[in-house]
Every structure is written in C-alpha cells, then in structure tokens.
Design brief:
Radius of gyration: 24 Å
Structural class: alpha+beta
Largest sheet: 6 strands, mixed
Mean pLDDT: 88
CATH topology of the largest domain: Heat Shock Protein 90
Number of strands: 18
Number of helices: 16
Helix content: 25-40%
Shape: globular
Low-confidence stretches: 363-368
Number of domains: 3
Strand order of the largest sheet: 10-9-13-14-16-15
C-alpha cells in the first residue's frame, strides 16, 4: 500500500527523524492519520529491531515535544508485516488546533498540516484563525465546582494495573485547568460527584411500563462504567438450542459490539451539558444514548470509516490506561461489523445506538445462578458473614477482616449494593452517621445458594 493523505511510512526511528512534524500534521488534519515505523517510502518492510524501546521513545517524544497536549489523541501499537515487527502510530484529529512543535511554537516552523502525502508548514494566517476558534468549552478547561475532591478509587484502579499514581498524577493525567484547579474531567473521575448514570429496563417495547431502574454513579466514572458493563453483561443472557447434531448457543446481543458501545457512550459523551449517557433495555432491543452530536469537522461518512476525534481526550487517556479501551478508533468498526450502520441514530444533540435482541428480553428478575456469576470472591465473603439483621459499616468491615476503608468500600460494599444484594436502611441519606446495611431478598437467596 503506498503512502496516502492518511498514511506515512518511516524506515526507522532515529534522533534525526522529525516524527513530531508528522504527528502534528495529522493532529491538525481533519481525518487524523497513521505513521508506520519500519516501512520505507516504497512500501518495503524493514521491521524494527527493538519495538518495546521504540514505543517508549515515541510516546515520550509526542508527550514532551508537542502542544497542546496530545495525550489521549494517539496510540502506539506493534504489528507484524511480512514476518517482521513494525510500529503503528494512530493519530486522531485534535479538537484544540493548531497543534505545534513546542520548540518553535505557533509559527510556520512549528505548525504543520497534512496535504496530500506530505506534512507542509501551515500558513501563519491559518494558524491565527485556528487559534481564534480553538475549542475552549471542554472538560479539561472547565473548573470543577468542587475542589475538595479525593481520588482513592482511581488510585486503586491504577494499582490493579500495576501503574501506581504518584503525587503529581492530577497534572500528568491532565485533571487540572491551565490555572491549576481541578477540572471537570477530574470531577468526573473523583470519588464523589453528582453524575448519575441510569440503566432502565421496560416490560414491553415502549417506555410506558418500567420494570426495573438501576442508578450508578455519584462516584468515579470508571466505577460507573464497570457497573454498567456488569449489569448489561448480566442481562445479555445466553440462548441455547439443542438440535439432533449439536448444541447451539448465542447471546441476546453481540458481546463485543455491546461492550464497545457502552465504552463509547461513556468516553465520548458531552459532559459539558451535564447529561450522562443512558442505557435502556426493552423487550425487543437495547438503546444506548449519549449526549452530543458528532464532533465539529467529523462527517457521518468519516465516522463510519473509523476516523477518531475524541471529544474527551482526558477520559480517553485514563480509559486506555486502565485497558477499558484497547486501541484508538477500534470501537466503531467492531460495532459496524456486528450491526451495520442502521444501528446508529444521529440528531443535533444526541447519538443513539439501537441493538435488536435475538429474542424477547425476559423482564423478570434474573435467576440466582446468573447473578452468582457476577459475584466476586469479596462479595461472597460479605454475604456469608452477614445474618438476618442490620449492620453498620464498621461492623461489616470487622466481620470480613478488612481494615482499609477504600478497599472495603470499592471491593465489598459498593458491588454488593449495585447487585441489589445489600440495601441501605436509610436510602435517602446514604452518608448518614446512623446508616446501616442489610441483606436484600436476593442477598438472602444468594447466601443459601453459596452455602
């Protein structure tokens, strides 16, 4: 494949290679692009001798030598071509154009634009016009209305991935405004916030008869995402058909596409409108709705072709750090492969994905065995330790033998509440000093099942 307006080949990564120029040009280009390392200009595969070391060098150069920050807007992956390892740098179109090489600033020596198969200097007039219209109303620039925020939960998630956060993590993860205050991205990822994410289930094919309403949130967006993934996974039951020759199994919805759609709704939702993504299960379909139209400069055809313009690069970066996003721009193609373009509905203010179910969705409560599959070892310990009475948080911590409050909160208490295994005695005042917890009917059934 020859070089194109979206593909650039480089034989090898050297100090003399102006990699930053190519990345800047794609960041400023409305379609983004790909830079391959280990392929020469004629398309011949040369390979790279040390992919891991080169990946670290590439990430370091893009992070430190380009402004505004490109974190969350690029990805570096290893691929194999003609039996040799090569590197692919995936660059999304940025929303804070013009991007430039820090060494030269917003000048024709620092700003580049992809024209044809080359990175060309950007005219000074275009630089000034782009800067004047630069998006400023983003979650990275909006100051959070609360500054007394903690991030114990986020620390736990990073520690689980063996990426412990240091004291400067708010700066390195871009959770601060240019003035040094916690921004709205930080607010969304904090231990406490007012963002509520709803998963509703209806008995029929309309919203007239609500069968079940689950609410996740008021905490880290990562936790809300995981909770929604777990809930939808529980609903996505396996259908079995036994024939004379074989046992056929399929699920209500394609699991890969469904997961990508959920992640996409969280990462690309327009939180500046103070509206969270919404998930609704009907008898014949599931609907996933996120706030915000397509990003400026991205057409529907480009959207379907997989061009990526991350609306919230700060969230994209964190979701990728925690392996919730596998590769930049990979989600939409996976959804299209399973459901096609017809599952997407665009409007001026929302994007909705509609996935038909393989058969009518059962609106009754899931059987105990299905719920048990979602119960972690920690929650099992909690269930078996409790009897038919009300307990304070301290009492439950002593019973399960956990002294670290955040660990208990995020690994034991919250999962049990979200699975409707535990309920609060004072639900209207979750932070009341008199708050206690007890097993629900489902919790008691699970306890017997575990026994």
């Amino acid at each position: 494949m020859p070089e194109t307006n979206r593909i650039e080949y480089k034989a090898q990564l050297t100090k003399d290679l102006d990699l930053e120029k190519e990345v800047v040009a794609f960041l400023n280009y409305h379609e983004g692009g790909l830079v391959y390392i280990g392929i020469d200009k004629n398309g011949n595969t040369l390979g790279v001798s040390d992919p891991d070391a080169d990946m670290l060098k590439i990430k370091d150069r893009i992070k430190n030598n380009i402004a505004p920050s490109a974190m969350g807007l690029f990805d570096v992956v290893t691929e194999e071509k003609d039996g040799l390892p090569i590197l692919k740098i995936i660059v999304a179109s940025g929303s804070e154009k013009p991007y430039f090489k820090k060494k030269y600033g917003m000048t024709e020596k620092g700003c580049y634009l992809r024209i044809g198969t080359a990175a060309e200097p950007m005219p000074q007039k275009m630089i000034e016009e782009l800067f004047a219209s630069r998006t400023r109303n983003s979650i990275g620039k909006i100051k959070a209305n609360r500054q007394d925020l903690s991030f114990a939960q986020l620390r736990i998630y990073y520690e689980e991935k063996h990426k412990p956060l240091n004291q400067q993590f708010k700066k390195s993860l871009e959770l601060l405004t240019p003035q040094g205050d916690i921004n709205y991205a930080g607010y969304l990822l904090a231990d406490e916030n007012n963002v509520s994410v709803k998963v509703a289930k209806y008995k029929g094919s309309t919203r007239a008869d609500l069968a079940e309403s689950n609410e996740y949130g008021y905490g880290s967006l990562i936790k809300a995402t995981k909770s929604v993934l777990d809930k939808i996974e529980l609903e996505n039951r396996t259908l079995t058909q036994i024939t004379t020759k074989e046992r056929l199994e399929k699920r209500l919805w394609n699991g890969i596409a469904l997961r990508e759609a959920i992640i996409n709704a969280f990462v690309h939702n327009d939180y500046t409108r103070e509206i969270a993504p919404k998930f609704e299960i009907f008898q014949d379909r599931i609907e996933i709705t996120s706030a915000g139209a397509l990003p400026d400069g991205l057409s529907e055809s480009e959207f379907f072709e997989g061009y990526s313009v991350p609306r919230n690069k700060e969230l994209m970066r964190v979701f990728k750090d925690l392996d919730l996003v596998e590769q930049l721009g990979s989600g939409i193609p996976r959804i299209l492969e399973a459901y096609g373009k017809d599952c997407f509905e665009f409007s001026a203010n929302f994007l909705r994905m509609v996935f038909p179910s393989a058969e009518p969705v059962n609106s009754t409560e899931q059987v105990t065995e299905q719920v048990t599959e979602q119960v972690t070892e920690q929650v099992s310990v909690l269930i078996t330790a409790m009897s038919d009475k009300d307990y304070s948080r301290t009492e439950i911590m002593e019973m399960v033998g956990v002294k670290h409050r955040p660990t208990f909160l995020y690994n034991y208490l919250q999962p049990a509440i979200e699975l409707n295994i535990l309920e609060l005695t004072i639900p209207d005042k979750p932070n009341s000093s008199k708050q206690k917890y007890r097993l629900t009917r489902k919790g008691k059934q699970l306890k017997e099942h575990i026994k």
